[in-house]
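dumping the sequnces here before i forget
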Amino acid sequence: MEITDIKNYMQLVGQQARAASRLIAKAETAAKNQALATMAAAIKRNKQILLAANAQDLEHARTKGLEAALIDRLTLTAKGVDSMAEGLLQIAALADPIGEISGLNYRPSGIQVGKMRVPLGVIGIIYEARPNVTADAAGLCLKAGNAAILRGGSEAIHANKAIAACVKEGLNHAGLPESAVQVIETTDRAAVGELITMQDFVDVIVPRGGKGLIERISNEARVPVIKHLHGVCHVYIDKQANIDKALRIAENAKCQRYGTCNTMETLLIHKDIAAKILPELTEIYYLNGVELRGDPAARAIVATIKAASEEDWETEYLAPILSIRIVNDFEQALEHIARYGSQHTDAIVTEDYTQARRFLREVDASSVMINTSTRFADGFEYGLGAEIGISTDKIHARGPVGLEGLTSQKYVVLGDGQIRQ
Amino acid sequence: MEITDIKNYMQLVGQQARAASRLIAKAETAAKNQALATMAAAIKRNKQILLAANAQDLEHARTKGLEAALIDRLTLTAKGVDSMAEGLLQIAALADPIGEISGLNYRPSGIQVGKMRVPLGVIGIIYEARPNVTADAAGLCLKAGNAAILRGGSEAIHANKAIAACVKEGLNHAGLPESAVQVIETTDRAAVGELITMQDFVDVIVPRGGKGLIERISNEARVPVIKHLHGVCHVYIDKQANIDKALRIAENAKCQRYGTCNTMETLLIHKDIAAKILPELTEIYYLNGVELRGDPAARAIVATIKAASEEDWETEYLAPILSIRIVNDFEQALEHIARYGSQHTDAIVTEDYTQARRFLREVDASSVMINTSTRFADGFEYGLGAEIGISTDKIHARGPVGLEGLTSQKYVVLGDGQIRQ
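..and the predicted 3d for all of it:
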């Protein structure tokens, strides 16, 4: 299909999504779960079709000379197709959040007041490369009772359309409206501009991707955005740290995976413990192939550490590079995190009760940790079952966003003829 | 003070608010409560000064020929000053929401994951006429650990400055930074434009006022907005309604106060019960001086009811006027509410369990009620202690917004050296 009038096309998509959202909001739990199970089965059955569609995208990407990292994210393997299906089954197994009533208490007037969890309505997801997001986002939005409009990267359009067909099969089979999940069929960038400004048809936008994409969307959106910005995560090794735990955590937070937003990018070490721990840490990092960039105090202890520039402290490397700073005290560690951090995830390693308690309260980040690795900042590890992203916003949802972040709560009031005096 | 460079002035206000927010976020509960108590005492002690400042505003308003309703909202009485002080003491008596940790559970990896309630940061409040909002907003923001920037209506500038002096006295006395609550000292409208776009210094905007003000701010803001739009509230009298309850609720929802957003503006009546209830209801409304506008079916039952136009169904009268429609069934009532309602507050009167259960789930509004008056939709009646407004948004906060709506939650993770596998 050739789509020429983008504005008209997107208005139609929006109208259909709004209409579908009303039906999905009151859909029974069993119907939603049946749709998810059928989607999973369709994805498994159509594995070869999905892989062929992905091959088409990959060929296109290579012809256009896209960078290796992007091609890596774009690549769908047979195992990747299986885990997409598995992910949908996991979402089906989660408790239905919709309709849950909490805190229903009697008030002195005699009325009972509580809150009922309800869908947000229509959610627009804008993402790049990874085709598995199409299945994940469709599943999460559906289970949370929302209609979804999915705008994947143009480089993944064939795989996304093939996955969308499986999603539609699931919706149809469960008697739910097909337009509850719509994949934008045009790669024209103007479609994004429409999506993020259709206030009548879209309730929230979730952008997933690079800093550039997210900043552009935040600036231009007229619809609320659940942002996932970059992660400049810190581990602070306090002078009262247990050395063994500090070594384990500092290695894991950096080396377990380099390209994720919850990877440590800056290590802060109290001056009283630095000489004892930094030489051994340096060896561990060098064995892992990590480049170290430090402040003068760090370089005075280990001469092979390169010099860090001011820019290093605010950089999300997403690579085997780590900046290291020796701090004079706890206060200086807090100041550094407040100044250079991105409010994503920060951890302290300490056995000191009072420092731990202060760190927990005073560090302003979506996840604050004591004696564990920043790599745990993840929806699955937190028990949310799945996540649509990690919010660095404070409004609405903060940290890993699962089903609950895709819902709202309305007040419910039960009476027996009470009137207000 | 003459403020000429608005942009510069607002940047300074923003910087000071951001700096203060860091200190207020970690302020002790006792200090916040002491500040609130001292503010209350200062307001009572300076009652004559506040009333004199208000008299100055009122004189100005009359000279400018402002409308009676606005002058009414602007007027501060001795009793009004006392209740401002009382409101601050009530906020002091509420539990401190900040730092509360909930749902701290062990995960299979051995880490414990929970959520800690934290302040939003800097809150900008934009409001009209009523000077008491200055004290209420300052108190709520402070207790929730936020810094506040208050922009009241130019017509109330003298009273607002006088109240601000009492607020500053309270902050000073408790050793908290004065700039934790700043009242904008210029009446230049450009200050609002700056306030709603200072993304670095303001975390959320709460506009309070007419539909025009709120729409303009929503459209121009670059900072998240907690909106309070208009209330086109419905009461639906089902065919299984208890007549006595229906009469009490329908009277109270309309007549207890006319100018509030939770007042019923449209009454829907099932056709099977209309002939039995409408004549008596009409008498009640006429005794209260309420003008009735109905659809043809309503007018066929009571001839003195005026004809309603299409426009009536979507109008928030804020006046002794009520539109009445007779519906064929439950479905038509739901459709009417979905089409014309403003998602504020809607109530059903019924003894039918299944209809009640469906109404609660399917009506999309910030408050949904069974067998009680829409007039209960209020922070104090819901047990929130106080409210900064009633949100008709779905994102972040919905319905009456109290202390909790002015906070966020961060994840806290406690470990004992766990690393991610």
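The radius of gyration of chain A is 24 Å.
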